[in-house]
Design a protein that fits this description.
single chain; 348 residues; alpha+beta; Double Stranded RNA Binding Domain; two-stranded antiparallel ribbon; 12 helices; 22 strands
């Protein structure tokens, strides 16, 4: 690069630096040089500090530890940002709607929701994105690149977060722990979802009927029972299904394949779905994770606990629309409706 009158100014982009070393390191970004290579995956970097930070993805080392919870981080900046979740501090405020954010970058990204601006455009298909990172991730759909490779099994991923999650399969690590029953999980959102079992909370409510769900995906699936929509279509016989899982099971009738069952490793009993195996396993372990706070009776399923709680509260939440009689269980209401309609309810 050519010298300028200011010895620490970049001639290409006019950025200024406090010392010559920083300017020289920056200059590499213009000429495309990446002299520092990772010995494990051969990824290259412009600065040795970037290589050093990258090596932590291979060693799994997280040297910066939170004093308030067990979480650890590869970078001190990540720890500082995490600490705001404990203090509750949100220093960056939106002038339009007054929403507050932990990070300035989050505020900037949020501001795009007010302006509607999508400054990052794909040259291939003209799709536009609010974030550069979203554009970069989108570009992989055109190039087919999978830049993040597992050094254990060589599986490749488009995102670093996907690789990190995958690595837990090899290490067996389950860093997120339930404070109530001490069950451990690979992902934080799995713990949050699991905690609803203990709290009994069902935050997602159906607008049509009184049913409530722990997950929004369960609510969406349930809504299909009201709309009658069957979005999953068999291309062989045009039969339609409300659930993708049902379509997959149906496809076996065309292919002649036998679905691989989910098997209990204790008694070898087979089940159509993995969740049925998990529920079945409680028979072998004797575990009853759902406990009544009133009489301390324990149950294998949260639904059984909720039904039991009605014996303490005396609540009868299911009302007959014809005679206004109330019932503790929905199944009792359905059976009662036979006296009005003459139609026996279909067993579920």
């Amino acid at each position: 690069m050519q010298q300028t009158d200011d010895p620490h100014r970049c001639n290409a982009c006019h950025m200024q630096f406090t010392d010559l070393g920083s300017l020289q390191g920056h200059a590499i970004t213009h000429i495309g040089g990446r002299p520092h290579e990772c010995d494990v995956c051969h990824k290259q970097f412009t600065k040795p500090s970037h290589l050093k930070r990258h090596m932590l993805t291979h060693t799994g080392e997280r040297p910066h530890k939170c004093d308030m919870c067990p979480r650890q981080f590869t970078e001190v900046s990540h720890l500082k940002r995490h600490m705001l979740t404990h203090t509750g501090e949100r220093p960056h405020k939106c002038d339009v709607c007054l929403q507050q954010f932990i990070e300035l970058s989050h505020l900037k990204r949020h501001m795009l929701t007010h302006t509607g601006k999508r400054p990052h455009k794909c040259d291939e298909c003209n799709d536009q994105f609010t974030r550069l990172s979203d554009l970069k991730r989108h570009m992989l759909t055109h190039t087919g690149d999978m830049p993040y490779k597992c050094y254990v099994c060589c599986k490749e991923f488009t995102q670093l977060s996907h690789l990190k999650r995958h690595m837990l399969m090899h290490t067996g690590e389950r860093p997120h722990k339930c404070d109530v029953c001490h069950k451990q999980f690979t992902k934080l959102n799995h713990v949050k979802r699991h905690m609803l079992i203990h709290s009994g909370e069902r935050p997602h409510k159906c607008d049509v009927c009184p049913r409530q769900f722990t997950e929004v995906s369960h609510l969406k699936t349930h809504m299909l029972t009201h709309s009658g929509q069957k979005p999953h279509k068999c291309f062989e016989c045009n039969q339609q299904f409300s659930l993708l899982g049902n379509l997959k099971m149906h496809m076996f009738t065309h292919t002649g394949d036998v679905p691989v069952p989910h098997k209990c490793h204790v008694c070898r009993k087979e089940f159509a779905q993995r969740r049925y195996v998990k529920r079945h396993m409680l028979i072998h372990t004797g575990e009853r994770p759902h406990k009544c706070d009133v009489c301390l009776q324990q149950f294998t399923e949260v639904g059984h606990l909720k039904r039991h709680m009605l014996t303490h509260t005396g609540s009868k939440p299911h009302e007959c629309a014809v005679c206004t009689r109330h019932f503790t269980r929905l199944s009792d209401l359905r059976r009662h409706m036979f006296t009005h309609t003459g139609v026996m309810p279909v067993p579920r």
